[in-house]
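Q: Joint fold for the lines below.
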Amino acid sequence: MSSPDGSVRSCLVVGTGLIGTSIALALRGQGVTVHLSDRDPVAVRRAAELGAGDPGVPRAQVDLAVVAVAPSATAEVAIGLLTGSVAATVVDTAGVKADVMREVRRVLGRAGHFVGTHPMAGRERSGPGAARADLFEGRPWVLVEAGSEEASRARARALVQLCGGVPVRMDEIAHDAAVALVSHVPHLAATLVAARLAEGEGAALELTGQGLRDVTRVAASDPDLWVDILAANAEPVARVLTELRQDVDGAIAALREVSEDPEWGRTSLRELLVRGNSGRARLPGKHGAAATAYVVVPVVVADRPGELARLLVDAGQAGVNVEDVRIEHSPGQPVGLVELSVSPGVDDRLTQALLELGWVVHG
Amino acid sequence: MSSPDGSVRSCLVVGTGLIGTSIALALRGQGVTVHLSDRDPVAVRRAAELGAGDPGVPRAQVDLAVVAVAPSATAEVAIGLLTGSVAATVVDTAGVKADVMREVRRVLGRAGHFVGTHPMAGRERSGPGAARADLFEGRPWVLVEAGSEEASRARARALVQLCGGVPVRMDEIAHDAAVALVSHVPHLAATLVAARLAEGEGAALELTGQGLRDVTRVAASDPDLWVDILAANAEPVARVLTELRQDVDGAIAALREVSEDPEWGRTSLRELLVRGNSGRARLPGKHGAAATAYVVVPVVVADRPGELARLLVDAGQAGVNVEDVRIEHSPGQPVGLVELSVSPGVDDRLTQALLELGWVVHG
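A: Joint structure:
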C-alpha cells in the first residue's frame, strides 16, 4: 500500500528525532519505502532498529524528502536537498515558518518543489526512542503551499494523510501569528506566573489549588527548546505580548484606582474578565468540534489502587461515555475528588447510578 | 458527638450559600446543633430542607457564629454578631482578610471573640443546593488568630477540625499576599491570555492544543464574583501584577533585540524560562506533600463508553495506583491519548502489563 493517490512511494527522512522518526514509522506502516539520515549516526541507527526505515541516502531520486532537523538548520538542509534534486518534493516540519520560507526563496527563488509544513504534535520526551507511528493521528498539520507546484502540494497532502493528520492550509505569516497567539504567548504567560512563585514565600504555596497547577503546567518545559522557538518567532510573539501588556497596564491601573474610584475600577476589571470569558469560549472542543459545555459530575474517591477504575467501570455500566477526567488533589487527606465530564443530559443518569452504587457524588 | 474538645456544641451560620451551608452540613454531621440565617428566606429554607440545621436565630448564646455572606457585607455582619453577643466566638469565611480584620478592629477595638478564617474550597456551582458536608475535606483552611482570645482560637480550630479541613495559621497580610500570588494573579494571567483569543482570527484557534486549554481554564469563571475578589485584594494583586509586568517588559525587550543581539536576547529569554521552571517545581504535589515527579504513561484509547474504565481496570490489576489521569483530545479523529501519571519505578511495570493486554502505549 502507498498513499491514496500513489504520489508518495518512497521517502527520505532527514533528522531522526521524535518528529522525523514518528513520520518514518507512520509512512512505513503504510507501505512507503523510507530512507533515514541524521548527522548523529547513533540516532539514525536507533530509528532503523525501531523499524523506521533504512539508514543512508537513497541512490535514486525519492518522491518526498522530509526535513525534521533543528529549526535553525532547517532552511539550510532543505535548500541542500532541493539543489541536489534528491527528492521530487521537499517538505520541512519546523514550528515557525516565515523564516524558513524566506530563506528558501532567497536562495532558490520560486521553490516549486518545496512545501513548508508544521505537524502540531509533540511529546515531553524527545529522540527516536520516543517516536510513535500514531503521534500525528487526529492532530492539525499546517501546510504552507504558496509558490509550490501542484504535484508537490499533492505529495505534502499525501504525507499528512498517510500520517493520520488533519491538513490545515495557511500562509506562513498567518501560521506564525497563530502559534504566537495559541502557543508561544500562552507558554510565556504560564512562565511569567510560575516565575513569580520562584520568589514567593513557602507558606503561600500551601494554599495552592488546581487552578494554579493548570495555569503553570507548561512552564515546566525545556528552556533551551523554548528559547529556540521564541527566538525564531520573535516578532509575532512580541506583538501579541505587547497587546497583552496593554491589558496588564489596564488591570494595574484599575486595581490602583479601585479604592479612589470604585465604579471606574470595577467596570474596567469586569470588562477585562468578560473579554477573558469570550476568548475562552472560542476554544474548540475535542475532535476539533465547537466547544461542548460538558457537565461535571464530581465524585469522592479514596486514594488507593483500583478505586478510579471501579468508578469508571460503574460509570460505563450506566452506559455513560466519560469525556474527560480531572482529579482534584486534596492536601493532607487520602481522599480525592474526581470530576467526570459528560455530555449534558446524561449527568443526572450518571449521578443517580453512582449514588445507587454507594458513591459520594457532589450533585 | 461534638468537637473533640467540646468547645463547639452549638453554632449559628449566617449566609446559607455554598460555603455556609456546607459548613452547616459538616457540623450537623458531627452532632453540633446548627441554626441557619440568611437575608434570603428561600436560601435559608432550602438549606434547612437539606438537613443543614434549623432556620432562625438562636434564643440563647451559641458557642460559634460563622459569617459566610458576600465579602463586602462580611465585616458589618460580624460586627453586629459580636456587638449583640449572639455567640461566644464569631468567625468569618471571606477570601480576602485584611479589610475585614481592619474594619472589625476599627469599630470594636481589640476583638478577642473574633477569628478571621478562609476555607480554601469552592465549586463552579453556588447556592445551598451545591453544598456538601465534605466540601472542606483535606483542603487548607486559613486561620488569622492575632488578637483573638485563646478560647476563641480553640473554637475556630475545632470548626476546621469538625469540617475535615487542614488548619493553616497566617496573619492577614501574609494571607492576602499569598492568595494574590497563588490565585488572583494566576486568574488574571489566564484572563489576559484568553482575552487575546477574543480578537484572534478563527483559523488560529484550529491549532489549539491542551496547553492553551490548561492555561486558560480558570478564565471561564464568573466575572462579577472576580471583580469583588480583585477589588477587595486590590493592593496585593497590583503589587504582584506589577512585578509580573517587569518580566513582560523584559521578555518584549529580549524578543525585539534577538535579531540584533542574539546572545543577549536568548540569554535573557532563557533566564526567564528557567525561573519559570523553578517556580513551577515549588508547587506542592497532591495531599500537600512536596511535588513528586510522577511518570506519565501515555496510552491510546478509543473514544467510546467503557474504554477508559477498561484501561484503569487493567492498570489496577497490574497493582498500580494511578495518581492522575489526563485525556489529550485529538481533533478530527475518534481516538484519544490518555496519560496515566504513576510513581517513578512502577511505570515500566504498568507499560509492560498494558502492552501485554493489547494497549497501544507510547513508551
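Q: Anything notable?
A: Residues 172-199 of chain B form the longest helix (28 residues). Residues 286-291, 329-334 of chain B have pLDDT under 50 and may be disordered.
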